[in-house]
UniProtKB/TrEMBL annotation:
It is found in: Membrane. GO terms for cellular component: membrane; synaptic vesicle. This is Uncharacterized protein. One of its GO terms (biological process) is visual perception.
Amino acid sequence: MEVESLSHYLLSIVYMPLSLRMICVTNLFCWMAHVCYSLYFTDFVGEAVFQGDPKATLGSRPQKRYEEGVRFGCWGMAMYSLSCSFYSLIIENLIQRFRAKTVYVGGLLFYCIGMALMALTRAKLSVIVFSWTAGIMYSTLFTMPYLLVAHYHNVSTFELDINGAPKLGSGLRGLGTDVAIISSMVFLAQFLLSLCMGTIIKISGTTTAVISTASFLSFCGALSATRIMYLDL
């Protein structure tokens, strides 16, 4: 059995095949889109939907509306958790029936549309209804990238030849390493959002920008997902 050196192992992290880089880019967009929802959602509901103000005087009407909105937003996140559970039960069957590319791109576009409609309507009903799309995004995040990486390793194929046929890999790559690289995108997503989200909200003057940004990033993820190598999945 061939044993690669430590330097080769480290270089395999830096110089990834295009197929893995596209999964990383897609996963980064997806995590950024989801983090917008998971970290800032209740703030959006409290300010944009309920017209509250977290900086208002304690006990004032705007401050009470904000707290009421935050509590109501928790119901939306409960719907998100339920939809994630339900979708996780059927996503494998969906992949078998509609193929991986359709499920991956479709799930991201579904979330994109849901967040866009939530930002446009800013209503209590939309908070409950469109939060279900966030569960589909979350389930997709923890399913599709790892399914694809595992499939690449299973068939030892990370690229296509000039005729579009699968090309067997000549180097040794670790499945655990590639899974870790894909998973690390969540930390990069959190870091990037922490740098820019405050500025985005300040420039726009509304927390609706958070949900709009989530929709845009999900759309970017859907575009990059169309460039992923799916092989026979």
